[in-house]
Specification:
This protein has 498 residues and is α/β, with parallel strands linked by helices. It folds into 2 domains: 12-119, 2-Layer Sandwich (Chitobiase, domain 2), CATH 3.30.379.10; 125-460, Alpha-Beta Barrel (TIM Barrel), CATH 3.20.20.80. It has 15 helices and 20 strands. Helix 3 (139-151) runs parallel beside helix 5 and helix 7 runs parallel beside helix 8. The longest helix has 17 residues, at 271-287. It is elongated and about 70 Å long. InterPro entries: Beta_hexosaminidase_sua/sub (IPR025705), GH (IPR017853), Glyco_hydro_20_cat (IPR015883), Hex-like_dom2 (IPR029018), HEX_bac_N (IPR015882). It catalyses: Hydrolysis of terminal non-reducing N-acetyl-D-hexosamine residues in N-acetyl-beta-D-hexosaminides. It comes from Microbacterium marinum.
């Protein structure tokens, strides 16, 4: 059968006995799960302009509870219609998005090829991260990114809510954080923050798309903004620790608008620091129904190893006592007192450098697991090519779509079993990203490669799990992405369908 525009690649795709595709017309009807029917109707309206009527016995039947692995589904297109059975509501949701990918226009109208698909995810955690600290992104922009990610079967949204440039979440016990430290962003542009009601709205919207929000308040480094609001909690910038970009130098107590990293730290030895940690993560835990709270722990370059270890031990335990599972970047694996069960997020390269693999393995020895985010593969803020107007190049230069695709999660950190890997996450840092159009320009089409690494079978276990197959399948999604309003660049690496 011809290569179908399915990304991420399903576990199994086979033709059915039907001799011809199933037509989608103004007379097509849907029955079954009400929520799922509403989702499908909205997507079809956008994609085709057709209104899908609900009946008791539809041409498209949607059901939940057919058994199988969590988030799995079965989709069958035959002469008698279309049926999608989800093991749960999330599985049915993903099956609907697979169906929408299959719909394409012909001279005779809209059709769906006659196929049978059985599908389930490889990893339980499939994430995207949006940095709202370097540039603030409002609730509507976050919702739009949720829609884009959920359509590719991502199920976690990691929000990077604080950094040197700004604090972006209302903490009622610490009102100075947003009063004094939220108004600016990289380059001196406007900042902003989420009220607690804004944050709850994001969490609820994500849940309606079967996504869990993972909030991050980064510390002990990346905390210059905390020092603007609470100078008593922050050390002076350590300028000889800066990874410099040539921009403005940080000054204690003044908002920072550059993109250097490594210079800031909380005061590790002060009890007031841990009162602050308990306050902010206590409120964050109450606001967050999901199981994870991320406390950062990366690039504390001006902090001694001993102080860093002290902070990580105390902060991870504070998070654990909220009833949530702590998450930290892989540097925190160097701390012998890291709270048991903490999840590590690996951000070094596909081939580890500077001992990152050993720090990552430390999480699994402590009862935790790993989220893989190799920077030279799925950091979506890297330039796709050297001349691209947005993005950075520190992760081994520009990251092409092909490089974003050609990596295998199980091969990154030696000594890990498959069950040690919780999942895959594609971060989007926003030093150069100020608008939704910027997000689209850097994320697409490479976000599709990250989706396939997170959902699809390992490269050794599926014949079509190849670069050549992926680039053709992704190219077939161009018309769908266009109708969904995604302003993706037409990468020359992809043979786009017009």
């Amino acid at each position: 059968m011809p290569t179908l525009p399915l990304v991420p690649l399903p576990r199994r795709v086979a033709p059915t006995e039907a001799a011809s595709p199933f037509p989608i017309t103004s007379a097509t009807t849907v029955s079954g799960d009400t929520d799922a029917a509403g989702t499908l109707a909205a997507l079809l309206r956008t994609r085709t302009g057709l209104e899908l009527a609900a009946t008791d016995d539809g041409d498209i039947v949607l059901s939940v509870g057919g058994g199988g692995e969590p988030e799995s589904y079965r989709l069958r297109v035959g002469a008698d219609g279309i049926r999608i059975d989800g093991a749960d509501a999330a599985g049915l949701f993903y099956g609907i998005h697979t169906l929408v990918q299959l719909i394409h226009g012909t001279d005779a109208g809209w059709i769906v090829p006659a196929v049978e698909i059985e599908d389930a995810p490889r990893f339980a955690y499939r994430g995207v991260m949006l940095d709202v600290a370097r540039h603030f992104h409002d609730v509507d922009t976050v919702r739009a990114y949720i829609d884009r990610a959920a359509a590719l079967k991502f199920n976690h949204l990691h929000l990077h809510l604080s950094d040197d440039q700004g604090w972006r979440l209302e903490i009622r016990s610490r009102p100075e954080l947003t009063r004094a430290a939220s108004a600016t962003s990289v380059g001196g542009g406007p900042g902003g923050y989420y009220t607690q009601d804004d944050y709850r709205a994001i969490v609820a919207y994500a849940a309606s798309r079967h996504m869990t929000v993972v909030p991050e308040l980064d510390m002990p480094g990346h905390t210059h903004a905390v020092g603007v609001a609470h100078p008593e909690l922050a050390e002076n910038p350590v300028l000889d620790a800066v990874v410099s970009s040539g921009g403005p130098a940080p000054r204690a107590g003044e908002p920072y608008t550059g993109i250097d990293v490594g210079f800031s730290s909380l005061r590790i030895g002060e009890d007031a620091t841990y009162d602050f940690v308990a306050d902010v993560f206590g409120e964050l835990a109450e606001l967050t129904p999901g199981p994870y709270l991320h406390f950062g722990g990366d690039e504390a370059l001006g902090t001694s190893p001993e102080d860093f270890a002290t902070f990580v031990a105390r902060a991870s335990e504070i998070v654990r006592r909220t009833g949530k599972t702590p998450v930290a970047w892989h540097e925190a694996g160097a701390a012998p007192g890291l709270a048991r069960g903490t999840i590590g997020q690996y951000w070094s390269f596909v081939t580890p450098v500077d001992g990152a693999d050993e720090r990552a393995r430390a999480f699994t020895r402590g009862g935790g697991r790993l989220i893989l985010s190799p920077a030279d593969a799925i950091y979506l803020d890297m330039k796709p090519h050297e001349d691209f107007p947005l993005g950075l190049t520190w992760a081994r230069g520009a990251t092409s779509v092909e490089r974003a695709y050609r990596w295998e999660p199980s091969a990154v950190v030696d000594g890990l079993a498959e069950e040690d890997i919780l999942g895959v996450e594609a971060p989007l840092w926003t030093e150069t990203v100020a608008t939704l159009e910027d997000i689209d320009a850097l994320a697409f089409p490479r976000i599709a490669a990250a989706a396939e690494a997170a959902w699809s079978p390992a490269t050794s276990d599926a014949g079509d799990r190849t670069w050549e197959s992926f680039r053709v399948r992704t190219g077939g999604l161009g018309p769908l992405w266009t109708t969904l309003g995604i302003r993706f660049p037409a990468s020359p690496e992809i043979p786009w369908t017009t």
